[in-house]
Write a structure and sequence with these properties.
about 110 residues, mainly beta, elongated
Length: about 110
Amino acid sequence: MENLPDCPKCRCEYVYSDGTVLICPECGHEFQADDAQEKIYKDANGNVLVDGDDVIITQDLKVKGASPLKKGTKVKNIRLIEPEDGVHDIACKIPGFGFMYLKTSVVKKV
């Protein structure tokens, strides 16, 4: 059995080869074997972030239809994602606000 990489989008381990591309049966993502390299996420200070880290927001963030998120707000247990919009790469739940996507460039690791 081949040793194929996990899906870079959803981390599914049941990836299969279809000739020239690798396909994930769970999310349908198609990718090349070289695309499966682990992306390194870094905060505003250059520290490496991993799933489950706690971070602090480094600047006031305007939120459409809500009050702004203040600089210094602590966010626990972040989840790093492959950005669908190409920008927001952190999924998190902010206390008193709810679920939100953030950029790694506006947070620092605690």
